[in-house]
Specification:
The structure is a single chain. The protein is 0% helix and 57% strand. The chain is mostly beta strands and 190 residues long. The strands form 4 sheets. Strands 1, 2, 3, 5, 6, 7, 9 and 10 form an 8-stranded antiparallel beta sheet that branches. Strands 11-16-14-13-17-18 form a 6-stranded antiparallel beta barrel.
């Protein structure tokens, strides 16, 4: 599938209300696919689920008719309230991405010098997925008591609030208020 055919996905970094709340400017870096002025996009993530019309696109403060992967852009959205668009969500081609509260991942814990600490089954960690930060609980494989610094494991993560996820999605996590490790989403429930 070429970049032009790949579904659009852009993490929401900032949201600005414009023209007495009738339009919303959303900024972020396009992760994949492309978007054209006049396209319909969907917000996915915490409090997401609304669709909006892209009525304008800006790249480097210049209006453009189309934007593609790896571009930092501002999208002017019409037909959506600023109250339903927030940092941590993603804008996507409608129906292409769903939210999940549980996923399987491969994680690696940083060294102790970098902030890594033992991760035990049931530990509550702060997961940073794209622009979302959400608390979650980690479940280790049967027979594994802890994951030590500089080691890895396949784990199940249960988030306290569902977020937009795709298989292969990288993330970072914090433990005891310190950067503790990284991971990659390997499986999502269907």
């Amino acid at each position: 599938m070429s970049a032009a055919e790949e579904p659009f996905l852009m993490p929401v970094e900032d949201v600005f209300r414009l023209r007495q709340g009738r339009e919303v400017l959303v900024t972020g870096r396009i992760e994949r696919g492309g978007v054209h002025e006049g396209d319909t996009v969907e917000t996915v993530g915490p409090n997401g689920g609304a669709t909006a019309l892209v009525s304008g696109i800006e790249h480097n403060r210049t209006p453009v008719g189309m934007a593609k992967a790896d571009m930092n852009v501002g999208l002017l959205l019409r037909d959506v309230s600023a109250d339903v668009v927030e940092r941590g969500q993603v804008l996507v081609t409608p129906g292409s991405v769903r939210v999940h509260g549980v996923f399987t991942a491969d994680i690696t814990v940083l060294s102790e010098g970098q902030g890594g600490a033992d991760v035990a089954c049931g530990d509550r960690l702060r997961f940073h997925i794209r622009t979302a930060g959400v608390w979650g609980t980690v479940t280790l494989p049967r027979g594994t008591g802890t994951v030590r610094p500089l080691h890895g494991a396949e784990v199940t993560v249960t988030l306290e609030e569902p977020v937009a996820l795709t298989e292969g999605q990288p993330f970072a996590f914090r433990h005891h208020a310190r950067a503790a490790g990284t991971g990659t989403v390997t499986r999502l429930p269907h």
